[in-house]
Automatic annotation (TrEMBL):
InterPro entries: Methyltransf_11, SAM-dependent_MTases_sf. This is Class I SAM-dependent methyltransferase. It comes from Gracilimonas halophila. It comes from the Bacteria. It holds the Pfam family Methyltransf_11. The lineage of its organism: Bacteria, Pseudomonadati, Balneolota, Balneolia, Balneolales. One of its GO terms (biological process) is methylation.
């Protein structure tokens, strides 16, 4: 088990309560920029407790299937409980760098506040590109390693047991382009002591 998975297994039961304001802010930001239709197959590649998926359903975002993937067994267990009676939601536990799906499986992939935890970010982007259909969309929201937040990120890296490999928005855009993505939208902002970015890219 990776140390990131182990850390989130320990946090799972209190995660949403502990990070309520952070989650409310970031999920709202993703939702106002997100779009899908009734034929779309969506993969939330680091779905955690499934909170974003719940918001997608509550706001009537259309899709044919929503796959929630996470390496933390305990976080995913909470997601499974949340959607135990919803047949359009399914669950997998693949590392993002080794997704066990066929090529061109999804219309949309989401990575929410998790890119900084990926052990091999280039491999993760390559896998996400592989499983997307031609013309498919990739939404990524994560920490932006710029300004004062670089020092806050250093502190987070010291105190947490997780893999922390935070990149700047500009660095992520370069990685996306190297992985053959086309960047369609990019936004950067601050919230309390956090720096964030949201990027929408297409295959």
């Amino acid at each position: 088990m990776s140390r990131t998975a182990e850390s989130y297994n320990k946090q799972a039961k209190m995660y949403e309560e502990k990070w309520e304001n952070y989650l409310s802010h970031t999920h709202h930001k993703m939702l106002v920029n997100f779009s899908s239709d009734s034929e779309h197959r969506i993969l939330d590649v680091s779905a955690g407790t499934g909170l974003l998926a719940q918001h997608l359903l509550e706001e009537d975002n259309a899709f044919s299937e929503l796959v929630l993937n996470d390496i933390s067994e305990e976080m995913l267990s909470m997601a499974k409980s949340r959607f135990s009676e919803n047949e359009t939601v399914s669950f997998t536990e693949f590392p993002v760098e080794r997704l066990g799906f066929e090529e061109h499986s999804f219309d949309t992939v989401i990575s929410m506040s998790a890119f900084h935890n990926y052990t091999d970010q280039e491999a993760a982007l390559s896998e996400i590109y592989r499983v997307l259909k031609p013309g498919g969309s990739f939404y990524i929201l994560d920490w932006n390693k710029k300004g004062v937040f670089r020092f806050i990120n250093m502190f987070i890296n010291v105190v947490t047991g997780e893999v922390i490999r935070t990149s700047s928005a500009d660095d992520v855009k370069k990685m996306l382009k190297t992985s053959s993505f086309k960047v369609y939208r990019s936004e950067k902002w601050k919230y309390n002591y956090w720096n964030f970015f949201l990027i929408k890219a297409k295959k």
